[in-house]
């Protein structure tokens, strides 16, 4: 996938849903439903997981902790967006509005006019 850069790549991985569950792995029973206490205990035993629920061993946590990398990437993004906002203030304001989940100032009037137009010309 890295060698071909002029088009998208599709990476396909075979997985087993509910991997590790001795009685439900690979079945629809594990999809969208809780395993239940007995099956969780059996899965923990099968996987050799000796930690409490929601406990992550420090060495695993350290390998997966992406806080510093995320903060660095966010800082780069913020710098790029600040430059963009200087060059394109209106578009940057529109982007911020949308990202904040705010509707346009005139949305009520526009929505009312649209509904009235539809009501005047029903299909």
From TrEMBL:
The GO cellular component terms are: cytosol
EC number, as in UniProt: 2.2.1.1
InterPro entries in alphabetical order: THDP-binding, Transketolase_fam, Transketolase_N
- Listed Gene3D superfamilies: 3.40.50.970
| A single BP term in Gene Ontology | pentose-phosphate shunt
Would the keyword Transferase turn up in this protein's UniProt record?
yes
**All copies of domain Transketolase N-terminal, residue ranges:** 1-104
Query: Which keywords does this chain's UniProt record carry?
Result: Transferase
Top EC category:
transferase
Entry superkingdom: Bacteria
Question: What GO molecular functions are on record for this protein?
Answer: transketolase activity
Q: Which PANTHER family match?
A: TRANSKETOLASE, TRANSKETOLASE 1-RELATED
Protein name (database record): Transketolase
User: Which organism encodes this protein?
Assistant: Serratia nevei
């Amino acid at each position: 996938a890295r060698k071909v850069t002029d088009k998208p790549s599709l990476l396909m991985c075979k997985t087993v849903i509910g991997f590790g569950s001795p009685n439900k792995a690979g079945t629809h029973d594990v999809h969208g439903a809780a395993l239940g206490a007995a099956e969780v205990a059996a899965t923990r035993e099968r996987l050799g997981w000796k930690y409490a629920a929601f406990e992550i061993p420090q060495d695993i946590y350290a390998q997966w902790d992406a806080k510093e990398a995320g903060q660095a990437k966010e800082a780069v993004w913020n710098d790029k967006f600040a430059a963009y906002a200087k060059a394109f203030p209106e578009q940057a304001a529109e982007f911020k509005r949308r990202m904040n989940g705010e509707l346009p100032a005139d949305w009520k009037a526009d929505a009312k006019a649209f509904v009235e137009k539809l009501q005047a010309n029903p299909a």
